[in-house]
Amino acid sequence: MDGAVFRGDGIAAWRKIADLLEAEIVGGMLAPGTQLPTEAALAARFGVNRHTVRRALGELAGKGLVRTAQGRGTFVELSRLAYPIGERTRFSQNMAQEGREAGGIVLEAVEIEADPRLAGLLDIAPGSPVLRLLTLRSADDVPIAFGSSYFPLPRFAGFAEAYRRLGAVTPALAACGVDDYKRQATRVGARFASPEEAARLDIAVGRPLLTVESVNVDLDGIPIQATFGLFAADRTEIVLQS
């Protein structure tokens, strides 16, 4: 039945497939998080080749309706989750409030010298040693955000190991002697995803990203963390709390 629809009216088959799958997603027939059939199965359903199906799925990914997880298949995008930013912003807590399981992995941990801009954010001298931690954060195994966080050394020399072991920022800071902390400043912007960023977040190249620059301080007001994060805008909305 589906295959017969894609013949003879001058409209490209990939466009018709994309439109039909989009209607099924929007109409709720394909719920958020649902895994789509394989390219081979879709090609058989619509009576086309896999290249045609791949182009249709690329169109849907470009609209933020589906995501392709390498080695696992193509999934309907989850509904956007609210991410509150206030005096005490905690990723794991935000995910729990949305009913999602938080995840975090360290992609890279290196010691660098602070440039003038970073030094200003952390209130340290330019050239001072800092720990740069590149992390990928997820909700229910779906990539939500990734970016770099910077911690003054030697105070946070053990942070990377603690984060790898504990999987979250707050307990890792506690392991370094910071039992509580506050958000001092947040700057939010937006831009489009580069190929590398899109690959990290399982989104199409050129999809919108929310950029979040932030500084956390301990209860004495001393900066302990500067972060430059990228959030997938199709999956997240930033809620600024007073």
From TrEMBL:
It comes from the Bacteria. CDD domains: WHTH_GntR. SUPFAM superfamilies: Chorismate lyase-like, Winged helix' DNA-binding domain. It holds the Pfam family GntR. PROSITE patterns: HTH_GNTR. GO terms for biological process: negative regulation of DNA-templated transcription. Keywords: DNA-binding, Transcription, Transcription regulation. Residues 11-79 form the HTH gntR-type domain. Coiled coil: none annotated. GO terms for molecular function: DNA binding; DNA-binding transcription factor activity. This is Phosphonate metabolism transcriptional regulator PhnF. The gene is phnF.
